[in-house]
Amino acid sequence: MEEIFFKGLGGKNKSTASEHAYAPKEGRHLDADGIFGVELAGHKSSLERLDAEFGANIDYAKGGMDTGSQRDAISRVAEKIASSESGSFVGEKALSSAVELINLVKASLSLGEDVEPHEVAGLMARLEAVSRNFEGGKKETQDMAKKEFIDAAALLAEIESCAEFADYQKNDPAAPFDFENAGEKYPHLDVIRARTKVGLRRIAETNRDFVPDGKSFDEFLECLQGIAGLRRSGEDKILRRDSLILKKMRHKPAIFKKLAGRVLVAQSGSE
Amino acid sequence: MPQNNSNSLGEFVKDLIRSRGLDNLDYEIVVQLKADLRDRVESRVNAAILANLPPEKVEYFEKLLDQSSTEEVQSFCQRNIYGLDEIIANELAKFRATYLNV
User: Fold this and answer.
1) How many CB pairs under 8 A join A and B?
2) Nearest Cβ partner of A259 from B50, B77, B101?
3) How far is B71 from chain A (nearest CA, A)?
4) Alpha-carbon torsion, ordered A30, A35, A41, A42, to 10 deg
5) What's A10's DSSP letter?
6) What does A89-103 look like in DSSP terms, one character per residue?
7) Given CA atoms A88, A90, A93, A99 in this order, what sign does their dihedral have?
8) DSSP B4-56
9) Which burial class, exposed, middle or buried, applies to A94 when counting CB atoms under 10 A from its CB (0-12, 13-18, 19+)?
10) Closest partner residue to A263 among B36, B43, B88, by Cβ?
11) A124-169: per-residue pLDDT in tens?
12) CB A195 within 8 A of CB A135
């Protein structure tokens, strides 16, 4: 099963986008600003090629899943990704090929299609267990198998995505995601996250083939986080719109720096 | 001499880590903690800005983010969000309180 991860383009079940249920809707390509993050604006043939490969690789990925429900889950997530406006939930620079996308979806799905609020504490416990591997340099860089690495990265991305949504939903009194309360049980969650991130980054630096296409670990994590966010947002149009805007704001950090920095400077001046 | 904005944010994050007694961890972990915290502060403040924009201005705001300079977006926020500085200050204070559990 591991072999399916990060196989090159061109899955065994070649089909065209038009034959496939997960081809992007008319007029909505997986475009240059979209989930593949490649410079393809104006290159229609390349887009068509990617669209076709996207559909083909979904078939390929489904072939590697063990159960019907896993295959259905792949289908649903792929449909969400194909229909997401400008790939709003996946980092523009993080993806370069269809097969990579599907492999990441698979890694992300290994955590379950939708993480319910009551399951967050369980994820944190699992992440804490992973982070123990990195305490005091216990885990040597060669020790981790690729599958273990991907699963750990997917788990970390899920928690990062939970934190991101919790930050967004702090402004919504009806927020369903009880991340802060779960955090009370794990007061050092930030340390656990940081330690795991540093440990996995070191492993990725030593094992270049663990992360596809020569990408950095941080790009890889951003991509997994994007997929987790896409799954979480579901069909909620406001949430999807806001997530897209917040993503655009993050890409202009100077706005935050100026606005928040100004307030902090004023505060320090008045102390 | 006026303080630099980024330095202020850096100090804000550094202070949080110091107050939690985490500044003695491995250097790499502390660097990562600072980066993560900064991201979360940014997410919280950005979410507060978005939540306080008049609903009818949200679509235009999104366009501005695509097409306009930082100064134009900043100015738009200041013109359209009543009490923006207080909102941001409040969000930073809430973040601090949650993080330090005070």
Assistant:
1) 120
2) B77
3) 8
4) -10
5) -
6) TS-TTT---HHHHHH
7) negative
8) PHHHHHHHHHHHHHHHTT-TTS-HHHHHHHHHHHHHHHHHHHHHHHHHHS-GG
9) buried
10) B88
11) 888 888 888 888 766 555 568 887 888 888 889 888 888 777 777 7
12) yes
Distance CA A199, CA A133 (A): 8
Q: Do the Cβ atoms of A260 and B88 come within 8 Å?
A: yes
CA distance A46 to A199: 37
Q: Using CA atoms, how far apart are residues A93 and A47, in angstroms rounded to an integer?
A: 16
Residues of B in contact with A164 (CB under 8 A): 43
**Alpha-carbon Rg for chain B in angstroms:** 16
Q: What is the ipTM of this complex?
A: 0.83
Residue A63: CB atoms within 10 A of its CB come to 13
Output the six-digit token pair for B50. Answer: 């978005």
Q: Read off the pTM.
A: 0.69
CA distance A116 to A118: 6
Contacting residues of A for B65, CB less than 8 Å apart: 245, 248-249, 252
Which residues in chain B have Cβ-Cβ distances shorter than 8 Å to A182? none
**DSSP secondary structure letter of residue A72:** H
The residue ranges of every structural domain in chain A are 2-109, 117-263
Amino acid residing at A59 = D
Q: Following CA atoms A49, A55, A59, A61 in sequence, which dihedral angle do they give, to the nearest 10 degrees?
A: 80
* Helix axis angle, A217-233 to A68-82, nearest 10°: 100
Between chains, do B43 and A167 touch, taking CB under 8 Å as contact?
Answer: yes
Residue in the block written with tokens 């935050």: A256
Most confident of A10-14, A75-79, A171-175, B83-87: B83-87
A197, two tokens: 């991130």
Q: Is residue A184 over pLDDT 70?
A: no
CB A224 within 8 A of CB A150: no
On whether the CB atoms of residues A230 and A95 are closer than 8 A, the answer is: no
